Prior knowledge:
By secondary structure, chain A is of the alpha+beta class.
Amino acid sequence: xxxxxxxxxxxxxxxxxxxxxxxxxxxxxxxxxxxxxxxxxxxxxxxxxxxxxxxxxxxxxxxxxxxxxxxxxxxxxxxxxxxxxxxxxxxxxxx
Amino acid sequence: xxxxxxxxxxxxxxxxxxxxxxxxxxxxxxxxxxxxxxxxxxxxxxxxxxxxxxxxxxxxxxxxxxxxxxxxxxxxxxxxxxxxxxxxxxxxxxxxxxxxxxxxxxxxxxxxxxxxxxxxxxxxxxxxxxxxxxxxxxxxxxxxxxxxxxxxxxxxxxxxxxxxxxxxxxxxxxxxxxxxxxxxxxxxxxxxxxxxxxxxxxxxxxxxxxxxxxxxxxxxxxxxxxxxxxxxxxxxxxxxxxxxxxxxxxxxxxxxxxxxxxxxxxxxxxxxxxxxxxxxxxxxxxxxxxxxxxxxxxxxxxxxxxxxxxxxxxxxxxxxxxxxxxxxxxxxxxxxxxxxxxxxxxxxxxxxxxxxxxxxxxxxxxxxxxxxxxxxxxxxxxxxxxxxxxxxxxxxxxxxxxxxxxxxxxxxxxxxxxxxxxxxxxxxxxxxxxxxxxxxxxxxxxxxxxxxxxxxxxxxxxxxxxxxxxxxxxxxxxxxxxxxxxxxxxxxxxxxxxxxxxxxxxxxxxxxxxxxxxxxxxxxxxxxxxxxxxxxxxxxxxxxxxxxxxxxxxxxxxxxxxxxxxxxxxxxxxxxxxxxxxxxxxxxxxxxxxxxxxxxxxxxxxxxxxxxxxxxxxxxxxxxxxxxxxxxxxxxxxxxxxxxxxxxxxxxxxxxxxxxxxxxxxxxxxxxxxxxxxxxxxxxxxxxxxxxxxxxxxxxxxxxxxxxxxxxxxxxxxxxxxxxxxxxxxxxxxxxxxxxxxxxxxxxxxxxxxxxxxxxxxxxxxxxxxxxxxxxxxxxxxxxxxxxxxxxxxxxxxxxxxxxxx
Lengths: 95, 806
């Protein structure tokens, strides 16, 4: 979209200072009916189907990479069974 | 045109004036003899020789004769038509004669000056040249120039300092201006720079007021985040389609920054050359115009119309965020266009010896600007990216990507020397103890106040070393850098240890400048920048009427030159719009409907899309205002259904016939394009380059006008050799018409081969306006061919006309 030409190869100098909200996804496996909405709609694509079965005989989701969660809570919004939610991570360095 | 026009049945009465030009012509040509000779030619009513025909008295003489002797054609045998044709055309008009009834014979640049020591032969040649001009003059027709109205609105493409200045000047004059910028904000490169040279003004401080002037000017409509997609029409009447990409933030945005704090995604900020971070919703820099924020949908979590993240929407009190915005195409109608699309910065990563992208403390001059800028990512501290410490020793390397054939660009980028000197003084200002080295090839401090700044830098202790480093090696522990090279002034090797290296990167054409080139049918120089219509006298015009250039799109230049050029371009566009109409030279083709078979060949070769063949309507039409008059359609038409006004087939045939009437077997007939080769031959004359006098030049606007039948006719008339000559490929004044020339000549060569003729007798040469010597040596070279042509060969080549080419 932006046509500024210089290649972006450096880590920005302010990387440590710029804070973005981070979330922590919690999954209540027993409630999951395996519809897969959370996996499909997660904008960070951080969820995937797990190998295990729950009581309802489906594969509940699992977190692929917990570091990328942006705490958008969309998984929480789309889940028909209230089986997934995100909690905002508290900032360590007092931000 | 109110002039009385000769009717077809009217007797043709030609007046011939042979100019002495002091001794410039009379010194090596017998002018009285030529005048006497001219009087014997058909249709010539009177012939005179005169000392200085272009003087007021000379012009008065012509005007008097036109009236007294009822002359209806005038031929002046003097200098190049490129010099005085407009003068004598005006003279004719003042005497009531249509200016297209005037013809010139160039007996100075093409004769007396190039045959200084062969008076007899030069006189014979001059007679031929006059005979050719008289033969053409007898067939000249009066022409009416078409008048085209001009829409009083302008389009400026590119919102850098050049585009800003051009838009403001035009808007202040009173014209409506559309300013199109593809970035989210106007400002361009100047907004990124910290200080300007040589005055050390704060760049954004002087630019920001101009930017806000643009934003609120009642005559300027600003289209940011937009790109020009299509251009149709011609001078005065362009129809332009602009794609306006959505910002996803409405004008209600108050730039409060609340949304940014909430946005969960980040990416390196392009404006800070990746040295700082921005969010998906952002403004590129604090002074941006418009100040409305923008959402980068490439990184935003909301994809494909699914709102997964509504943090910014919730944070925005003014409800200015709208993810439903769609791209829209805006159609503009404008009369003039200014191209101010700017330039790119050279990427030094390909020069591996400097280690850019390998060593973190090697930075570019653009990165330096962001680091030293108080509003930049480091708050104005020049810090090493490796450890965030301020370096004690700094080295600048000049000509990175400039003045180098290998791995760079061959030209000088104009601004880097002074930029480095300015940068070195900025470092000295903030951290006076810093030791600064500048490694250079030549320091070019050529502008006003530049030398003073250079002296100041030397006085402040900046060390200038001639000789670029051959290699840079990093100390892995300290991340300091060793620079190894040769000081060419002292002829000794150096090995310098520095904390930071700044590569003074050059300027190069925008990577996608072909898009603009294609949209406006512009030409490029070998450097890749857009070419002006004339490097000295029309420096901001392009060969496309109504389109002008400003800023770095035309070549590397500093802010002052960009602004100067922008004002010049605005003035040039303003002249057209204030006149409200423009006349088009009457050298465009006429379609002879009865002969036209609507085959579409002319449409295919026209570089301007100015000729349209419609099979449904069964007719071919010329859009006169879009036509530049190259004549390649006329050369291509197999049915002779196109008459190129003022350069008709009959007129050119008459010239060929006149040139080959006597001793054709010793002569070279040369077809030269007006812009390059004819001008090159003129240059040979001005430089007094001597060459054999047996060449007869016929001027066409473009080499693309030279139809195969012209060449064949010359051979059929017994000419020993033919030269077809035009601009170099890529430099054609009519975009790329000379490619047609090449194809036609190649076809002729094939045919000559088939007929067993010596192909050397037909030559094709690309000769630019600056290559007088090339023209002279080409004629010398062809003289050898002429010497070897036998009578039998001449007879044999007469067969060429009997068989169609190709």
